[in-house]
Fold this protein.
Amino acid sequence: MHQTIDTALGINLLHANQAGADHNREHFDEWGITCLNLMSSPGAGKTVLLEKTLAALQGQLNMAVIEGDMTTELDADRLRQYGSPVIAINTGRSCHLDSKMVAGGIHRLQEDYNPHQFDLVFVENVGNLVCPAEFEVGEHAKVALLSVTEGEDKPLKYPIMFQEADCLLITKLDLAPHLDIDLALLEANVRSMNPDVTIIPVSAKTGQGLDQWFSWIKAQLKVPQALIG
Amino acid sequence: MHQTIDTALGINLLHANQAGADHNREHFDEWGITCLNLMSSPGAGKTVLLEKTLAALQGQLNMAVIEGDMTTELDADRLRQYGSPVIAINTGRSCHLDSKMVAGGIHRLQEDYNPHQFDLVFVENVGNLVCPAEFEVGEHAKVALLSVTEGEDKPLKYPIMFQEADCLLITKLDLAPHLDIDLALLEANVRSMNPDVTIIPVSAKTGQGLDQWFSWIKAQLKVPQALIG
């Protein structure tokens, strides 16, 4: 459960979360890990994107996933079949991951593996287009997903997510022909919130755009790719 | 902004919200109004469902809408063309409507109209499958929407919304042929969370299921429909 807080208490809580996020990022930096925080509405396709990404990049990069869900390990189990470690975090009644929860995941990575071995850690956040955008977890970049089924107006109505994103994936592109969606207007609405965000339209079903997504990931790596493998 | 709270503070905040919700409901009861709280992920189709509903039931019922969005009056403007009063509430950084915000909407209905004239008030919540389910606003019933594009697993992963719902609309049924969705499994997952919920599959695009939705609405009315109009 959570509550809207506009007071000094709220500012203190965000400060505490930020301090924890900075501490998490120091760990990642020490180990040469790039951390990407994936966020979207429920059902926009975070998990299937990760499935395609783990399958495509295994052998090239050493990856792990910190998987946030209110309940169940359904998504964690889907991702485990690709061979990378997947740490499941159940948030209970909380609608987002915070830096303390992710610190718990980092400690489990540290206990069970040599953390220096990893190049890339994905954090899959709870499905929510509002709250995760406000809670840094120690990531180096924020990746937002918006499905074409959600409509062109969402960047205007849920501005914080789109303002905070470093990369925006427009997902389920294969469904666009069955919808009354104006993709140019959608992109213009994203740009009005965040002129510099990288926008990549993708379809996990057809594979469209995935190569561009993989290239973007590689450009974020702390350790230059030429040195890997 | 908001924060996860598991403490006595959180319990007090929920108690205060509940007291406000009970007070709102007393107003609705006094005026013979039924209030329905519509909740879903962003883009599941709350606004287009309300458009179809206002268009179909105008002349039969006297309706108003309390429209919650973080920013903009985009949805409120879409609904205003159907002739019913639409009170827009911008929640700012808050990811849900609470009973105090809705009380503000009720007071505006009371100031600008004779509230006894209304049969039905729809509250359209902020698009979020997690948080709105925990904050009663004075509604008589909770209506959740889940789009077929969101996947069968969502009732298991976001249990509170599905446990709290009195009616679940499975929306965008027209897209099902283009998806790998198992509707029987989806319904079974919903029933595992909430055996008694009314489930109505609909498509706002084709009109499928809308008559069943309108019948469900009429069965919720405080004033028996035979007495109306």
